[in-house]
Amino acid sequence: MIELFRSFSHWVEGFADSPWAIVTLVLNSFTESIVNPIPPDPLLIGMSFINPNLALVYAALVTISSVLGALVGHWLGLRFGRPLVFKFISAKKVARVEAMFHKYGSWAVLVAAFTPIPYKVFAITAGVLEMDRRPFIVASIIGRGARFFLLGGLIFIFGEAIQDFIETRFELLTVLFSILLIVSLALGFLFIRWRRANGIPLFDWEDSMETSQEPGDRSPL
Q: Is 193 part of any domain?
């Protein structure tokens, strides 16, 4: 089974320099968020090294198609429920995923969208648990976008000089960057809560607007 998976993965990667490369990339990314076990990263990397100037364009295509596929997965989970999830993973793992959702909410989707954790499982489970689509979409865009634009951005900037690093340390790179992303978002969230709790406007222009709208400052009609 593992050999079959590797053979299919290499077959998909072979489209990197073909006329069907973009179509294959989009289809692979879309279906990977629903049922396809082959991640789009290898094909994205191959295509980006062939055309480094288009690396960010490829990253955008992968992000969009992946999030659209996740929305389909969300709908399937909402429509068919837990029996559909059980087709992918065991009941024990389903319970673990659901526990992560109950504890972390949108953060669970964001982490799964960025790291090598099976994103499709979280997309479908989000539908099963009737997670609101808006935070689901936001978390998916941030996670998927960060993952694919990280790859595309590195190749766009450094080109072939970074090829060995990406191919040999990609998983480590995603884990480290995911930790950085989560910490940054958490600090930003805490900072916003602190400012609101102390009655401090988030932006200077909010204070200016409130001042300009005070009754004493209004000119008579």
A: no
